[in-house]
Design a protein that fits this description.
The protein is mostly beta strands and about 425 residues long. The strands form five sheets. Strands 1, 2, 4, 5, 6, 8, 9, 11 and 12 form a nine-stranded antiparallel sheet that branches. Strand 8 and strand 9 form a beta hairpin. Helix 3 packs across helix 4.
Length: about 425
């Protein structure tokens, strides 16, 4: 009989055991730093980077605002053709860390590394980081891992991911891997459990209990062992505890990275520079994250959700509708009244009226209409959206996409049909 992981919350952060007896080495009495200026080395070479996308980006498979930062590489690091001709960007540790897990994705053929803060022999698992989409690992890590990704008795398989536990110390500025090849960016996410939870409207959606429920379900469906579940829990992102990576550097190194925010994006100038935010909920309005399921963890239902909020580059001038198909089919196009998996942009939202109203100004009791949305390539969305805030507090939102209607005023009445969807915080 499988055990419930709600009973394990305290122990997980102190001693985590990985599949097949491999133990993550974390100090029994952890020593965590005070303050935020704890990183001492850049993780990239500035001349290899084109720019940094802050928290809150949407697009691709990311329907909800992204919890990590994108580090965009210069074109010389990104090429098709013969891999032997690729010029990789060098990725380094930003301070002394302990790498506790590594993942190889057999579909993308790239690596993720998961690590915690380290100071000498002391560690702090309250400060966790992950580096995603590395094309190669450092020679030292490659030697440490050996053939474990090719031995099914050594790794935990979850979809196309193969994950192994490690206890491998790396010093500040030491090379951990290389990025580039066919992938134009790599990701860095930071989780800081020392800080208060980020203020989503429905905190239960992002809570640790919700993570444990999700992991319990996964254990049952995938027939994972208890040790494999511990591995999953040691590396799962924590949306209500994730923060801006570059803020954890002293001023000099922070300013170097701050100057690179939004750079390399030719379709829009970027007069403001900030870390952005993946938390865009505004209570009692339409702004923020919404889910088709009334309960559940946000990481488990991102393919059944929408997000409405400001664009990270021009929050005062542009909003984004980020949507999924909201069902279990896999085809693209309009399904159940909602366009499938795309970020649609709207310029110059209004502070008054009922057409193209800013989402944080949408209030209960009225129906609002949105027209003139477009993809980033400039292609106009051929339809409109109707939106109504049904309830405040945790809230309910009704939304419907009406195809082949270019303008809101082309409809005699703004009435929802049976294709409308009701979503929840």
């Amino acid at each position: 009989m499988k055990k419930s992981y709600k009973m394990k919350m305290g122990a997980l952060l102190v001693s985590l055991f990985i599949s097949l007896g491999t133990t993550i080495s974390i100090s029994a009495a952890e020593v965590c730093p005070t303050g935020d200026e704890i990183f001492t080395a850049l993780s990239f070479e500035p001349n290899e980077l084109e720019g940094i996308v802050p928290l809150g980006e949407r697009g691709g498979s990311h329907v909800l605002p992204v919890k990590h930062m994108y580090f965009r590489l210069k074109p010389i690091q990104v090429a098709a053709g013969d891999p032997e001709q690729w010029v990789y960007a060098t990725i380094r540790a930003m301070r002394d860390v302990r790498i506790i897990a590594a993942t190889y994705n057999t579909q993308n053929e790239d690596y993720d590394l998961h690590m915690i803060y380290r100071d000498g022999t002391d560690t702090c698992s309250d400060i966790r980081l992950y580096f995603s989409h590395l094309q190669e690992l450092s020679p030292a890590l490659t030697a440490e891992i050996g053939q474990r990704f090719n031995d099914e008795t050594e790794y935990t398989a979850m979809g196309s991911d193969r994950t192994i536990g490690l206890s491998f110390d790396v010093n500040a500025a030491e090379i951990i891997g290389f990025a580039g090849g066919t992938v134009s960016s790599f990701d860095i996410g930071l989780i800081d459990l020392r800080k208060p939870r980020v203020g989503f409207v429905n905190p239960d959606r992002y809570s640790y209990d919700a993570i444990l429920d999700m992991v319990d379900d996964a254990q049952e469906q995938l027939q994972l062992t208890d040790e494999e579940v511990d591995l999953m829990l040691s590396i799962v992102p924590r949306g209500n505890r994730q923060h801006c990576f570059i803020r954890y550097f002293p001023q000099g190194l922070y300013q170097i990275q701050k100057a690179m925010l939004y750079a390399g994006d030719p379709w829009m100038p970027h007069p403001a520079q900030s870390c952005g935010s993946h938390m865009q909920d505004v209570p009692d309005t339409a702004a923020g994250n919404w889910f088709l399921d009334a309960t559940g963890h946000q990481s488990n239902v991102e393919d059944r959700s929408i997000s409405i909020g400001p664009h990270w580059a021009k929050p005062d001038e542009m909003i984004v509708f980020s949507l999924t198909k909201l069902d279990n089919q896999s085809n693209f196009g309009v399904v159940d009244g909602i366009p499938y998996t795309a970020a649609y942009h709207l310029m110059f939202p209004k502070n008054a009226g009922f057409i193209n109203r800013r989402p944080e100004a949408v209030v209960k009791g009225d129906v609002y209409c949105y027209e003139g949305l477009f993809y980033l390539d400039g292609q106009l969305l051929p339809g409109i959206f109707l939106v109504e805030l049904l309830d405040i507090g945790l809230g309910q939102l009704k939304i419907e996409y009406i195809d082949n209607v270019a303008q809101c005023n082309a409809l005699q009445t703004w009435q929802f049909s049976n294709s409308a969807q009701t979503l929840y915080r």
